[in-house]
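I have been asked to look over a protein record a colleague put together. Alongside the sequence sits a line of tokens, each denoting a local backbone shape. Please read both lines and tell me whether the tokens look consistent with the sequence. Take the sequence as given and treat only the tokens as open to question. I have pasted the whole thing underneath without changing anything:
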Amino acid sequence: MNFSPYLNFNGNCKEAFEFYAEVLGGEIIVLSTFAEAPPEADMPPEVSDQVMHAQLKVGEQIIMASDAPTTFQPAQGMHITIGVDTPEEAERIYEALSEGGNIIMPMEETFWAQRFAMVTDRFGTPWMVNCDKPIP
């Protein structure tokens, strides 16, 4: 069994996924637009360039997403947690996700982590960035 986050965006899924691929070192492996839907789906022309389904592969992990042209709601009550091996990698990712976003908890050392932060990025996705302390 595995779990994959499925994110919804308000018309900027492609831009968000290109940003995440760059920041996280991943690869967009699927990016389908509503224009590719079968005719019987009867999609309004104004959403034809929006993303119907996308998949971003980061290592062995998959994040999926789409634009939600009629049902978009900002993410609530959850965060996507990124676990990294070094404080430097935590700082790099945090800085990128923070740009234009909303810092909830700045990057700092905690009792469990060398570095930990919480941020909602400029696309509205809430993240936790965590670099655990070494286990003695």
